[in-house]
Amino acid sequence: MRKYARINGLGCVVIEKPVRKIKRITSEQKQQFDSFFNNKAHVIMSSYKTDAKIGQPVVYLKNTKNVL
Fold first, then answer.
1. SS3 58
2. Beta strand 43-50 with 57-61: parallel, antiparallel or unpaired?
3. Within its chain, how far is the Cα of 6 from the centroid?
4. CB-CB contact of 61 with 46 (8 Å)
């Protein structure tokens, strides 16, 4: 509040912040997500890079753009 008044002046109206609604994914959505990224038709697995947290290889989406 103090920072906002210092930047915009004391007479400014305070901006209303939107309420954030967090929606968690269901187990079915998680399974569909995992099956999509495990399908080699959609992704390319890196043979030399691994994720530090989970220790699995990094996957990249294949280029799906068509040549004109």
1. strand
2. antiparallel
3. 34
4. no
As a whole number of angstroms, the distance between CA 10 and CA 7 comes to 9
**Length in residues, the chain:** 68
Q: Per-residue pLDDT tens for 1-14?
A: 577 777 777 777 77
Q: How far is 1 from 58, CA to CA, in rounded Å?
A: 42
List the beta bridge partners of residue 59: 45
5's CB contacts (< 8 A; 6+ apart) are 12
pTM of the model: 0.50
DSSP class of residue 42 equals T
State the residue for tokens 């994914």. 25
Contact 43, 37 (CB under 8 A): yes
